[in-house]
Amino acid sequence: MQNDDTATSGAALPDAGPKKVFVKSYGCQMNVYDAQRMADVLAPEGYVETATMEDADLVVLNTCHIREKAAEKVYSELGRVRTLKRERKGRGEEMQVVVAGCVAQAEGAEILRRAPAVDLVVGPQSYHRLPDLVRAARDARVVDTEFPVEDKFSVLPQPAREKVRSRGVTAFVTVQEGCDKFCTFCVVPYTRGAEVSRPVGAIVTDIAKLADAGVREVSLLGQNVNAFHGVDEKGRAVTFGGLLQRVAAVPGIARIRYTTSHPRDMDEELIAAHRDLPQLMPYLHLPVQSGSDRILDAMNRRHTADDYLRIIERVRAARPDIALSSDFIVGFPGETDADFADTMRLVETVGYAAAFSFKYSTRPGTPAAELGDQVPEEVKTERIHVLQDLIMRQQRAFNAATVGRRVEVLIEKPGRHPGQLGGKSPYLQAVHIEDRDARIGDIVMVEITAPGTNSLYGSRVPGMETAIA
Ligand code: 5AD
Ligand code: SF4
Fold first, then answer.
1. Can you give the residue range of the structural domain that contains 428?
2. 306 lies in some domain
3. pLDDT band at 453 (very low <50, low <70, confident <90, very high)
């Protein structure tokens, strides 16, 4: 990790009314959450958020390094930013450019070399220092990709109540960061570092504040969220299942979700939580990556396809209506037609409500990048089409099976037309309803009447309100 030129001078920013910050996030939900925390840490410095890059004094690109395509996107965006920065300079206005996130962590000073418009490169562990770093970057370009000793979460400011409310009735909360699993294809253990779990008391306090501001649903985030091993206020060890119990006890929190999980960390307590906690939504994103034992071994997943299927059986025994989702990689080095057929068989066996699939992308510095026997691009393309076709059919079948059923819907936002509202079913399906009485934040009983392309339509069942207030 490098830390060239890091300075933390306290020089004040020139005082010329509110400054505007534009944050663009790529990649996972952790980045969406981090983007909000960056806006929160800059707010006391006088920065207000803007939705357009053109009028921003400060542009933050919160990047993703997981696949090559994601990482390259940032450089094409930086080309555009460079032009905007020049135009602003021509008008006598300043624009500071920050690259944050996992590309920043992985590439550090290389970004300054490739992208002349960039003033500051900051890794995910240093967001609490953003105001100082932005100030320092006015004098000289700065790279900060340290893993600092202080815990950024204890330093990051809480957003104001109105700010939380304006972000909606659902919220992300990071409870764990980093990964110790070292799957051979993955950059996360290098970009996000070792597993760290936040203290339970701090998480519960944050969530109570969110609930107080009107948040009804929290999604607990972590690169390996179910590997959570925190301590409570009395210093006792708490597993992820234990954390879920604590979160479920927060008044006002009606729905809990979590992502993303590893099969090896689906322990008994977590599976029991799916049976015992009505707040825990019946949806589980449990990536398996491949259905072939040979490939799972080469990926260092440390479980077999059969282990995974047994876990699914146990989860379904605990919560029979649970909807399942997964990530898949096709074309991992050495993947044969027979290995791919194993993946297809596993998908057929499980029956997913949704799933993401990716072509294997070589990531420099990962063990799999050193493997021979790379799968040709056209074979990857062929396989991903076949897999996505099956997943799409399963997703449609899952949605079609909801038609005629009654499900609770958390109302999240106004719909496209007046009188229409949009929300989510427990199974993470988007649902549109026509209703003039329900308010955002209500949980209402809805009968699903028709499937749409990516969502469902339904009508409210009057007089049937939620059990969880
Ligand atoms: N190539 C393709 N997909 C990848 N993922 C992680 N690393 C790679 C890679 N090198 C996928 C995995 C993971 C998801 C977040 O991204 O499926 O679960
Ligand atoms: Fe990457 Fe594997 Fe860790 Fe998930 S469990 S973040 S795929 S190394």
1. 406-460
2. no
3. confident
Residue to mutate (ligand 1; options 68, 185, 380; most atoms within 8 A of CB): 185
Query: What is the Å distance from ligand 1's center to 412 Cα?
Result: 30
- Based on the fold, state whether residues 80 and 190 are members of the same structural domain: no
In the prediction, which pLDDT does 16 show?
Answer: 54
**Chosen domain end from 144, 173, 204:** 144
* pLDDT tens digits along 215-249: 999 999 999 999 999 999 999 999 999 999 999 99
The model carries a pTM of 0.92
Residue 342: pLDDT above 70?
yes
List 456's β-bridge partners, or say none: 431, 451
Helix (H, G, I), strand (E, B) or coil at 176: strand
Number of the ligand closest to the Cα of 368: 1
Ligand nearest to the CA of 179: 2
Strand partners, 324: 284
pLDDT higher than threshold 80 for residue 140:
yes
Domain C-terminal end among 84, 118, 144: 144
Distance, in Å, from the CA atom of 99 to the CA atom of 38, rounded to the nearest integer, reads 12
Ligand 2 atom 1: residue of nearest CA: 186
Average pLDDT over residues 312-336: 98
Pocket test of ligand 2: the residue of 28, 66, 223 to mutate, having most ligand atoms within 8 Å of its CB, is 223
The rounded distance, in Å, linking the Cα atoms of 234 and 217 is 27
Look at residue 84 and tell me whether its pLDDT is greater than 90. yes
Residues 102 and 124 sit within 8 Å (Cβ to Cβ): yes
**Whole-number percent of the chain with pLDDT over 70:** 94
Q: Is the CB of 186 under 6 A from ligand 2?
A: yes
d(CA 270, CA 226): 8
How many angstroms separate the CA atoms of 376 and 142, rounded?
Answer: 40
**71 contacts 104 by C-beta, under 8 angstroms:** no
Distance CA 286, CA 262 (A): 6
What is the tens place of the pLDDT at every residue in 8-27?
Answer: 333 344 445 689 999 999 99
Q: Whose CA is nearest to atom 2 of ligand 1?
A: 360
Best residue among 259, 285, 326, 329 to mutate for probing ligand 1's pocket (most ligand atoms within 8 Å of CB) is 329
Closest CA to 224 of 295, 285, 147: 285
Average pLDDT over residues 51-62: 96
